[in-house]
């Protein structure tokens, strides 16, 4: 009996220490039509990988189909892609991660190269670039095409990056990225958030061109062009404010200062000419606007100092993640008995 209990405890300890070499993460919501093919394709492309399907309250049997196809099925009951990714990143340990949608729009054949970039080239995030291949011909929604180009241009301009496809759902990550990335987004703006996080934290980002095919007939996109598009733009503004507070607040300060000066010039001109201030309310508003501009500038300076401290703290978190990675690798290494143990 004691031996059985020891075996059970040892098995539990091994499971707890288990670290996958490659984990394929597939967040799903009502993808019964395509999930079986997606799981089968990635099992063929990455035979050593563990395929994880996280079901997000599907009502069409997606979870059961994925389980029969050979995937490890888990659940996230809080709706939203960002919520699913938060649980995935928290629960799964792997040397390399592949994130892909369950709608069969991305080719599994590109996954080995993306994983290689992580394991051998030390990339922290590998972006599956659709926009440089077939996206604009395959995607039948013109506003999506325009939105993707606009978001890519805005982010690369504001954050001085060179990411070829910001909104792609096909990516590969390192262990260090997954364990230090704070998932704050709740929905489809998660791709924008992780792209900007990688750039601003100085992580190594690489692009791999992948073929894109539109959803098969009968499969519906969960992405709303307008509401999710505005959410992405709001996320860009929020992250620009958080990562570059001096540039953000000084820009607002300059705008307010120019408005204040523009309206104050006629008032001062009238005063120097006649010695009177007939537009006294305008003078008060101009003074308040100039004061607000100075306060915004001071806020930007203070937040920049806080941002520098947060960046320093992140580097320490990265070192902790690296230590955790090395520890898990040692725990998962096969046991080699010494001569005296044989």
Question: What descriptive keywords fit this protein?
Answer:
2 domains, alpha/beta, 7 strands, 12 helices, seven-stranded mixed sheet, disordered N terminus
Could you explain how this protein is built, in words?
- The model is unreliable at 1-6, 8-16 and 338-342 (pLDDT under 50).
- The two termini are 26 Å apart.
- Helix content is 57%, strand content 11%.
- α7 packs parallel to α10 and α10 (225-243) packs across α11 (245-274).
- With 342 residues, it is an alpha/beta fold.
- The chain has helices at residues 2-17, 35-45, 62-68, 81-91, 111-121, 135-138, 142-158, 175-180, 190-200, 225-243, 245-274, 280-332, and strands at 20-28, 50-55, 72-75, 94-99, 125-129, 171-174, 205-209.
- The radius of gyration is 26 Å and the shape is elongated.
- It folds into 2 domains: 18-243, Spore Coat Polysaccharide Biosynthesis Protein SpsA, Chain A, CATH 3.90.550; 245-332.
């Amino acid at each position: 009996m004691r031996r059985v209990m020891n075996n059970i405890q040892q098995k539990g300890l091994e499971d707890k220490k288990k670290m996958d070499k490659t984990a394929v993460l597939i967040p799903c919501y009502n993808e019964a039509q395509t999930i079986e093919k997606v799981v089968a394709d990635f099992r063929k492309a990455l035979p050593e990988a563990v395929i994880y399907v996280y079901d997000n309250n599907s009502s069409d049997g997606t979870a059961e189909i994925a389980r029969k196809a050979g995937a490890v099925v888990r659940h996230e009951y809080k709706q939203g892609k960002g919520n699913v990714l938060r649980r995935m990143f928290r629960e799964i340990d792997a040397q390399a991660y592949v994130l892909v949608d369950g709608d069969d729009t991305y080719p599994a054949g590109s996954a080995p190269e993306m994983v290689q970039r992580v394991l051998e080239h030390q990339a922290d995030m590998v972006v599956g670039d659709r926009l440089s291949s077939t996206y604009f011909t395959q995607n039948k929604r013109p506003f999506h095409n325009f939105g993707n180009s606009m978001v890519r241009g805005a982010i690369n301009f504001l954050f001085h990056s060179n990411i070829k496809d910001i909104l792609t759902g096909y990516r590969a990550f390192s262990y260090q990225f997954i364990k230090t990335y704070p998932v704050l987004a709740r929905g489809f703006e998660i791709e924008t958030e992780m792209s900007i996080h990688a750039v601003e934290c100085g992580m190594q980002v690489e692009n791999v061109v992948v073929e894109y095919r539109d959803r098969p007939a009968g499969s519906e996109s969960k992405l709303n062009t307008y509401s999710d598009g505005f959410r992405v733009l709001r996320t860009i503004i929020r992250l620009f404010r958080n990562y570059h507070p001096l540039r953000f607040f000084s820009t607002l300060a300059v705008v307010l200062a120019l408005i204040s000066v523009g309206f104050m010039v006629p008032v001062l001109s009238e005063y120097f000419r006649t010695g009177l201030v007939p537009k006294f309310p305008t003078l008060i508003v101009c003074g308040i606007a100039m004061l607000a501009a100075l306060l915004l500038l001071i806020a930007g300076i203070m937040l920049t100092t806080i941002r520098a401290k947060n960046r320093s703290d992140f580097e320490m978190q990265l070192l902790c993640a690296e230590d955790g990675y090395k520890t898990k690798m040692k725990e998962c290494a096969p046991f080699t008995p010494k001569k005296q143990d044989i």
